Amino acid sequence: MIRRLLRVHDQLLPSEGKAWLVWAVLGSLVVALLDMVGIAAMMPLMLVATRAPGHESVLDRLAPFGVHGVGAGIVVLAAAVGGVFLLKTVAAIMFRWWLLGRTSRLEGLAAANMLERYAEAPYVVHRTRSNAQMNRQLDFSMSQVFGGLLNGYLMITVDALTLILATVVLAWISPVGTVAAVVVLGGVLAVIQLVLRSHQRRIGRELSDVAAEQWNARIPVVEGFRDVRLTTSVPFFTQQFRETRARQARAVRKLSILSEAPRYLLEVAMVVGIGAIAAAIQLMGDTGQMIAILGVFTAAAGRMLPTLNRLGANLGEARAATVGLEETESTLAALPAAVTTHHSPQDDGSGPAPLQGDIELQGVGFRFPDSRDWTLRGVNLRIPEGSTVALVGSSGAGKSTVLDVLLGLFAPTEGRVMCGGQDIAARPADWHRSLGVVSQDVFLINSSLRRNVAFGVPEGEIDDERLARALHSAQLDDLVADLPEGAETVLGERGIRISGGQRQRIGIARALYREPKVLILDEATSALDNLTEKKLSMTLEELAGRLTIVMVAHRLSTVRSADTIVFMDQGEVTDVGTFEEVRRSNEHFAQLVALGRVG
Q: TM segments (predicted)?
């Protein structure tokens, strides 16, 4: 288990190293040693307090320090014991503070690195992943791995060392009594852990499942607010959420009880253990210091009982958290290592140059990993630099898949995509740096118009002149003028405060802000009114020749001015030419033109 945990640590935190674990173990040893010294110091105190045989020797050793008499000896020894335990308490608090800070920071870094892996995963894999699973992994599983397991095992190390060293001291004081204590207390703890082990793992699995189910119940209300309200589905989804929360509460209660149950049993075992120690000492005939020894063992038991309780609780939490480790291992096995070379969304001229030149699809074929059917077959297409190309065809013809392959989101099953003579798969970051992409469904964050256009650019690095040009080209000047705070106005979650057409124009402004070499439009004008669509078409015509433009559109007016029409049918390119050439040669396209739409 520990090897698996360290392997996950190395995969998610390769730059952190494991030297800090050595310091954690050394810190555990220091805390345990202080406890051991405190327990050892109780024996001379009890000898003097009970005037047991051997107390004269203790007083003789204190005499050179000006301590004379039983009363003074008790005061000095009690102060010494109290001082050691106070020092141990301060050291334990400081160590715990450092350890929690360390593991909490690592949990945050690991979650961020896991999110980066999700973001860098192949798009074809991302499409099969549920939001609930991702959120569970990033929140619940990361907390289990670093809070429940890593932190738990380190605290188990502290407690185990404390118990071992305390046992060594007690064995020096009374071997027979120590054996009796280990048999009773150790035996009870071992039996308890053996009984609870499977129950705690099962509860851990239940908590993990409930975490995913909560997201499934929550997401429709958050993301599909309109649909939930208008279909009167509020009671259905809130009841689902209520039930999952109730299941979580029951599972947490069971885990808490199972973690706390050993405490009550160990309290009983401690009383029995003290009796067993007394009986063992009596049977061995070592009664001279019996009261002093029992006093030490009783005081030690009072110190060790919380440690035993904490040890049992940490063992239980660690077992429940193994489910999170298993899920994290499974996720890491399915995700590639994160790419560390990224470029800013805003090209400032630094770093490698973006790819540019003619774009070629050479024998491109694509099918999904879980399908035998080809979505694209033998696509050969050349897109000259600076030209405008429109992909048209009926629904399901493969147009959007061609765009996803062209964008580098889907890796071709066969063939390759070239730009300027270079394979885009060999330089994905530089290729994405060349692109400006406008999708039919533009994603907006709950922030200002300014931050949505300069998407992913730190606030201090946003170029206001470039921003103004992008807003103007996307026909957004009127919107900026109407907004109460101009470009600083917050648009709401997913742009809830603006219309669908305005949302698409913001997507166009975002693409133009990047000053791309290649502009990809996937139904980017579908939600625009005719006047705005005409103005944007004029903007695209102004950009023609300066940018390579590839578009998928159903509006006839949008594609008519394209230099090249590419007609697709059942995943194949069937005709390529000007608008008029394809209309004359392709009967299906001619029919679509007659209907006023091209797909």
A: 20-45, 65-87, 152-173, 179-196, 264-281
Helix boundaries (H) for 224-341 = 225-230, 234-283, 290-334
Q: In the predicted model, what is the mean pLDDT of residues 84-95?
A: 87
Same domain, 509 and 521: no
| Residues 181, 277 contacting (CB under 8 angstroms) | yes
Is there a single domain that holds both residue 89 and residue 203? Answer: yes
φ, ψ at 575 (rounded to 5°)? -150, 145
- If asked whether residues 241 and 367 sit together in one domain, one would say no
Q: What is the pLDDT of residue 389?
A: 92
Q: What is the identity of the amino acid at 70?
A: V
Q: What DSSP designation does 1 have? A: -
For 406, the token pair is 């062209």
Percent of the chain surpassing pLDDT 70: 91
Spatial distance between the Cα atoms of 597 and 557, rounded to a whole number of angstroms: 9
- Give the number of C-alpha atoms closer than 13 A to the C-alpha of residue 250, restricted to the C-beta side: 7
Instruction: Classify residue 478 by burial, with Cβ atoms within 10 Å: 0-12, 13-18, 19+.
Output: exposed
CATH number of the CATH domain containing 564: 3.40.50.300
> Comparing 452 with 180, which gets the higher pLDDT?
452
Give the chain's domain count. Answer: 3
In a domain, 530, yes or no: yes
Q: Please give the pLDDT value at position 318.
A: 85
Please identify which residue in the block is written with the tokens 């609930």.
132
Residue whose pair of structure tokens reads 């808490």 in the numeric block: 256
Please give the pLDDT value at position 341: 46
Helix-helix angle 290-334:151-173, to 10 degrees: 160
Domain that holds residue 148: 2-334
Which residue in the block uniquely carries the two structure tokens 């110091």?
A: 41
Reported residue count of the chain is: 599
CA distances to 5, 95, 107 from 102, rounded to whole Å, are 16, 10, 9
**The tokens 């309780």 sit on which residue?**
309
CA distance 124 to 410: 6
Helices (H), 13-128: 19-50, 55-62, 70-120, 123-126
Q: Which of 515, 532, 554 is the last residue of a domain?
A: 515
Cα dihedral value 81, 83, 84, 86, nearest 10: 120
pLDDT in the model for residue 345: 54
Q: What is the pLDDT of residue 599?
A: 54
Tell me: pLDDT of 528 over 90.
Answer: no
Same-domain pairing of 489 and 520: no
The pLDDT tens digits for 136-182 are: 888 888 888 888 888 888 888 888 888 888 888 777 777 777 777 77
Which run of H or of E encompasses 17?
Answer: none
Domain match, 51 and 193 both = yes
Find the helix packing angle between 55-62 and 19-50, rounded to 10°.
Answer: 110
- Closest of 591, 569, 593, 589 to residue 577, by C-alpha: 589
Which pLDDT score is estimated for 176? Answer: 74
- Rama region for 521: left / alpha / beta (φ>0; ψ in -120 to 50; rest): beta
H or E element at residue 510: helix 500-513
